[in-house]
């Protein structure tokens, strides 16, 4: 089966706002007292990658998992309900 616009059930599709994710990550980072530099070192990303995630420009799932692990949070804590 292939996915096309013709067989995509829009009622089941979920869009996750990168702005909400960005805000959740920034809030979680600040809550534990990390600077962007601290978080970058802890999760193995570079500062610009953290900045892109926190600005909503990047929501790469692999990066989000690394950030969640560095903040000792389940990934679901960073995603909107």
From TrEMBL:
Pfam families (UniProt xref): HTH_3
Source organism, top-level taxon: Bacteria
Classification via SMART domains: HTH_XRE
Coiled-coil ranges from the UniProt annotation: none
GO molecular function list: DNA binding
Sequence ranges assigned to domain HTH cro/C1-type in this UniProt record: 25-78
Protein name, UniProt field: Helix-turn-helix transcriptional regulator
């Amino acid at each position: 089966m292939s996915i096309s616009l013709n067989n995509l059930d829009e009622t089941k599709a979920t869009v996750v706002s990168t702005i909400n994710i960005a805000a959740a990550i920034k809030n979680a980072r600040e809550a534990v007292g990390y600077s962007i530099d601290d978080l970058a070192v802890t999760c193995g990303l570079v500062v610009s990658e953290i900045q892109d995630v926190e600005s909503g420009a990047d929501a790469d799932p692999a990066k989000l998992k690394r950030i969640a692990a560095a903040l000792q949070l389940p990934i679901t804590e960073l995603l909107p309900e």
